[in-house]
Amino acid sequence: MGLKKRLKGLLGDDLVDDLHGQVKDVLEHGLDRHVRIAVTGMSRSGKTVFITALTQHLLASDKGESLPFFALSSSDQIISVKLLPVDKDHAFPLQTAVQNLAAEPPTWPASTTGLSEVRLAIRYRPASRLQRLVSDIATLYVDIIDYPGEWLLDLPLLHKSFEQWCSEQRELFALAPRAALAADWLAAQAAIDWSQPVDQAQLSILNREYVKLLHLFRSEQYGMSVIQPGRAVLPAELENDTLIELFPLIATKPAGTLEDNSGYRVMEQRYLDYREQVIKRFYREHFARFDRQVVLVDCLKTLNKGQQCFDDMRLAVTDVLQSFNYGPSGFLRRLLSPRIDKVLFASTKADHVTANQHHNLDRFLELIIADARREMQFEGIETTCMALASVRSTEAAEAVLDGQTISCLKGYKKASGEPVALFPGEVPIELPTEKDWHSQRFRFVDFAPRKLPMQQLRPEHHIRLDQAIEYLLGDLF
Amino acid sequence: MSDKKQWQAPVDIPLDQVDHQPAQEESFAHAREVPVEQVVSVTEEAPKVEREPAVRVRKSRWRKVFALSAGVVLFAAVVSEVNRLVDWAFSLHVTVGYAAVAVVTTAVVSAGMWLLQGMRGLRQLKAREDIRARAQQMTEGQGEAIQLIKTIEAHYQDNTRGAKQEFLAAVHQLDSAYNDKEVVRYLSAHGLTQQDEAAKRCIQRYSVHSGVLVAVSPFATFDMWLVGWRNLRMLRELAEIYGISAGATAQWQLLKGVLHNIAFAGLSEVTIHAGTHVLGGSLSGAVSARIGQGIGAGLFTARSGLHAMRLCRPLPDDGHVKLDLSTISAAIQQDLNRKSG
Ligand SMILES: Nc1nc2c(ncn2[C@@H]2O[C@H](COP(=O)(O)OP(=O)(O)OP(=O)(O)O)[C@@H](O)[C@H]2O)c(=O)[nH]1
Ligand SMILES: [Mg+2]
To answer: The complex's ipTM?
Structure first.
């Protein structure tokens, strides 16, 4: 008090009051935090559905009804949550997704083909008195971007030379099912002398075949995850661009010095261009600045498909996660160059198994992400595993079969829309043995969504989404 | 082929054989239907933590003999004294005699009832401790929580202040997907809200009271008694809020727990303490020594209240049992300023 008076005497009233206001402003903005969440997941892992459900539940979180484990919401501290406008070309199609899920019959959002962004502002009453001293109201801004999962696989290429990439692909192409499926393409490639100039038309043909192969690998039937380069299968604005005419050379690198116009050098140049002009730009603009990360993994798909699918998924996840910046992030660090300081590994679609299998699902997820997680923990990153369903589409039920009561699921098949009830099998907590993979051990079917109302969301519309939110954001309030 | 039965194969179920479970009530009845093997393995995984053996103070045999004989002597003395009193009363007049008998009987019966009530409170406290311990050991499996819920429900027989209704309402809200741990967390956060709120209000009130009393009392030696008195009243009220029969023994048990906690207070609590002092101080400028003592007494009361709350709750606390201690010191100062100004 005394200090302020003396200052006023020295500097004049206006200036001091002005300064006072400014300081208060700065302090208030200090309370307003910004957080960017990276939603990471291979294609069809449930990113778009997750973002849609998260946004919708958060928008209704001031009612405090649907997120019992999100402390801020259940203690009625949230005043209101609103969507902030984003650039038109990049707006997340929330309206469409929400409408589709609320329609009759409800449908899942379509596979994502481009980049989009959601920005939320959460206005709340801080609980701690220290914060309330500064302001009664604070705001947390949350940014989330959505993108096709295919593009994610480009990120690891940033740290690899052409030669490294080719040798990794060589190992992959030596394994089933790639080896058999690509036999013709491999033979055609081997027939070419890459130390000599190669006809452009020939490269185009090889590329076209390669793209076809990639589509085949990632199809329902094989469910492979390591599909590179990502733009080859989902070019978006690069459709017909020569930049994406790129494939790995599976034949070993030709010996001796190579001319600049040799086939090998040409492909290498394409790789470098692709990396520079496509990946780096994408990374710098959208992937470099994150504070929190969710890694969504569809464990059930791998269980349905078998060992090769599992191995490929594990490789892809581990590879991708190395492209993010991890490290403890203090206040200043966060302002200058944000780093991810908390990671949530989530196995999505937990509603595909009965509730007593959720714990096993957690454990199985741990198997897939073990390597990536170890590295993060080494860096001091907080990580956790959780089985969740963003939009719960089954109901728990039970049936008496042969005198035995078993718990099962009731829902509607995604493919045909007809009602089904089944016990989909137990989730293993260790890698299944060779024999198990091939037996009829698992039958996880895809379900059509249950209607997600636009109003009056309830906790039974999701599984553990509230705990995911609490984990990702809870400590920021 | 021999390992075929290690896992349960997927089954398609004809739709008409499915019992649909309504989300309410039965959703947790379903939680019971965990295959037996699983339940066993879960308990195997989480071995009971051995309690640290308490240091036993060896009791002398003579002490026992002394206590017994002294008890007998005292009892005999009391009986003979009462006898004489009644005799004397009869010798005055018959009506006086009957009156004396009536008074004595009332005293004996009420003493017995009081003791019984106290024992009941004690039992309840002990039972809550057991429930909390069980709740803490819940795993990520399913099926154990239902027993626990039943036990807690039985505890709320007399439905003090709608506590049971609130608890049951929270139980109905439980999701079929929650595992045991989540069930406990959910109920702890949403099933005891009214009681927690009432308890916090009670603690706040008594803390401010005792703080102000100490600050204005002119006799330093009285302070301790004042604080002790307010504290005991508060413990009693807290016990009642959580539906524990608030006899003297329960109160005593709570007091013991609280004192134990304060004696072994962790460093973190001490730092919070210091922090709130600093905050309170900087807000109002200089704080007089007397007010300082008042605030100290208030915070002490608050802390013992919070710990008593933890002891009375049937479920473990994960962050619900907390009060903004700085509001207490602020309230004490405000109260004093109002009084002096
Ligand atoms: N039952 C259930 N199915 C889900 C859930 N989330 C996703 N799915 C299924 O997974 C499919 C893919 O989900 P998306 O969110 O579109 O996946 P994505 O990661 O955005 O995929 P891309 O955009 O292709 O990268 C959906 O069509 C659903 O069938 C869920 O919470 N529950
Ligand atoms: Mg998508």
So the answer is: 0.79
